[in-house]
Amino acid sequence: MARTSGKASATEGVLHNRIAVLRAEHGFSRQQLADAVDVNYQTIGYLERGDYNPSLELAFRLSEVFGVPIEAIFSRQPMRPMSEELFGRQPERKEAHGG
Amino acid sequence: MSAQTSGWRPPPVFTTAWITFALVATVLGGLLLLAALAGLAGSWVVLGYFAFVVLTAWTLRSVREEAGSWLGRRAVRRGLVVALLADCVALVAASPGAFGFVVALLVLLNVALGWATLRMASAPEAAVDERQESLRNRSHRIAYWAFALLVGGSILVAQVAGPGSRSWISGVFANGGSLIAFCELLFVLPAMVVAWLEPDHLALETAAAPGARARVALAMVALAIVLPALLSAGLVVLPARTTSTVQSVSISPTSRCDELMAETQVGFGVEARIPVHAMACGDGRTASEVWGLNRSDCVGGDTMLATVAAARCSRTTGPDGTLRFTYGAMVRPVLLPFLGRQVTMQVVIDRDGRVVRFP
């Protein structure tokens, strides 16, 4: 899951990513994606959790597997939801109703 | 434990850690075989147990499944590291009786550590991915400094502190347990650091049931852990076996003398043998010992993972000239010291030198 928390964005060296979203979109399990990019499946989990930042080579391999540019997968800024990025829509926010 | 079979890479066979393990196992196996041939109590059982542990380690090694959710937890892996370090300390301080058990435990803990870390600390380049390689390099850097500080610092402080600590450190390095602990830290510390640092593992989305080999391996591990406890409990609950011989000896024309030999054995594998060996005579008025029924004779015999302490030791001569000697020994297993049993051996010889009771 892409990391979007303010705390994470304030941390230096944190790389935000959309791997979990893209993996779900392509219908890959972690194991299948791990086999496709030739890493241990735990590494995919750590990437998704933001516990590990990939090398440039692994980032390119992921980009090739998902068929999207690297900047669509990784960002130094918290990533916006895909719907917002594609269609410019803001996610609906529930209004707080007073009693 | 969830089984994870796909994506698993076969571990390297001849790693440094594995060669060290094989060397230590061979040396200890040889020593135990020598001990068994020399007829020491219970050593065949200990030798068999050690062989079983090695077989368990081998079976575990051949299980082509990653450690499941339990060993994948960082807290469990950290507990494993603490247990390994405690075992290293126990190796330095272990009594000869408990040494075999501590080494067997070390072997089991090392196997579990290898399983929990996928042996990535000693895996070749081709068997690890970039994250594992980076973690491995970091763990080797940390282990290098930790080892240097731990061992080098201990030696330095002991050398500088005073003559007492100097003689202590020379004593520590003179025993085999310290050498094994030293090798353990030298070769396995990077794997301990990996186990300590790596975050919680993720479970596979499609967890498969453990294979037959994995189930057998887990059953063997459970048995290897439970067996020492069962054998220790056997020391307390199994019936005692006593053998005795009484042999007449003529040392005086006016007295009847007998040489008495008895041994009570309790337990199997974890066992103790308590001997009584004496010579006593009766001259028609009073019975007396020639040798062997004194307080200094209330001592434990051969033990294996057990302790023997004299709980009662008395010799009395009654008004009718009867000699009574009672030796009550408290026997406790080293591994379960809160358990214990008293073994009593009694010698009663009448004034004519006849053996009324033995043992």
Helix content percent band of chain A: 40-55%
Radius of gyration of chain A: 15 Å
Most extensive interface between two protein chains, with residue counts: A-B, 20 and 16 residues
pLDDT averaged over residues of chain A: 79
The ordered string of helix (H) and strand (E) elements of chain A is: HEHHHHHEH
Q: Alpha-carbon distance between the termini of chain B?
A: 53 Å
| Strands of chain B, count | 9
Gap between N and C termini of chain A: 35 Å
The main sheet of chain A orders its strands as: 1-2
How much of the polypeptide of chain A forms β-strand, as a percent range? under 5%
Low-pLDDT stretches of chain B = 1-7
SSE diagram, text form:
The complex is a heterodimer of chains A (99) and B (359).
Chain A: H1 6-10, E1 16-17, H2 19-26, H3 30-37, H4 41-49, H5 56-66, H6 70-73, E2 74-75, H7 82-87
Antiparallel strand pairs in A: 1-2
Chain B: H1 16-37, H2 43-61, H3 69-72, H4 74-93, H5 96-116, H6 130-161, H7 163-172, H8 176-197, H9 212-237, E1 241-249, E2 256-268, E3 270-282, E4 287-291, E5 303-304, E6 306-317, E7 323-333, E8 341-349, E9 355-357
Antiparallel strand pairs in B: 1-2, 2-3, 3-4, 3-5, 6-7, 7-8, 8-9
